[in-house]
Amino acid sequence: MPAQAEARALLKAIASGDAKALERLFARTETRVFRFIMRVVKNQAIAEELLNEVFLTVWQNANRYEGRSEPLTWMLSIAHNKAISTLRKKTELLGIDEEASGDLVAEEDTPDIAAQKHDKSVKIRACIAELSADHRTVLDLVYYQEQSVAEVAEVLGIPENTVKTRMFYARKKLSELLLARGMDRGWP
Amino acid sequence: MREERLEKLGERDEIEALLPWYVSDKLDAKSRARVERYMDAHPEVMAHLALAREEADATIASNEAITAPGRDALDRLRASIAAAPRRRPSADLLTQISDRFADWLAGFSPPQLALAGAVAALLVLLQAAAIGTLIMERVTAPSYQTAGGEETAGGGYELLVGFSPTATAGEITELLKRLDAVLTDGPRAGLYRLRFPDAKSGDEDRKAAIEALEQSGMVTVVLPGR
Lengths: 188, 226
Description:
A: mainly alpha, 10 helices, B: alpha+beta, 9 helices
């Protein structure tokens, strides 16, 4: 059975109260969902707590899953809502605007990575880490989570045209950051 | 992000925006054909596929560098579901609510019932009062001004929403901020009126808002407004 069809069958079983089905769904998807949350909240303990909340929500709301979207898309949507909500609370509490402080979300350079700064891939990774959470998230959803335009729209709760526009500006910003590091991509 | 919604991309920029989905093989047939037609006519765009592939490799590497959750994650989930109530399968909303209420009441002795009933009524009142504060805050805020500064009911559209009893005022505030929505009235028959003043009145925006509300886990029902 293909992965998504299997996930749909598991959700149906979860809706009827099958806790083992929830465990199987957890085993198949926890890493993807966890990484998606981690990329937003940047904190292992918070991400683990939110991961637990996401699957608890799946357990409690599986009977409301109508099959209009793929199970992973539905779960990423729940994860996004929880991660953004947590990030906003953190921002309000600490007075830090994550969107405006790229340095705070940049991946920390290990000595090894620092030594490889000339490497193109490492530079791109570093610049992606400097993008705003909104821009980084749209890249993650497409390139890593393999979501279509319509699915990204569903996860983020925005129209499809906004998804495309956000992707355009995310890539444009990435090119600008790379140019500032001496890497001219020739676009835009 | 509001400026992104307002600014419409030209054809070349839109093709550039679609390249990530093209390299990920996640475009529908129509869009894929459109990208290919454009690249046939503008071969220089072909070179930009390599840029999208570089971005894909870097993004995948960044994600895969994140260590998996701890080994106790599954144990923690088991403990959480053992402690948490579940929705009843395939029951309508009113049945679910009444069943849950009946289950809850069944756990009390008669003297406790009067107190429990009073507590339940108080919780509903407290949530309504908290949400009522949001309505007053939003109504007094100058959020419906045109470029000329005149107050107007404006464009957009409205939806009627019932909030989950477990949703806090803070969570509802964050949801409204994220959706660029304001509470304008309620509760009437348990429903609040939600306005999306900056949204276009088209079906796509409205559908996206309804789906976002339904998936927030904070609403029990969403109905069309005006």
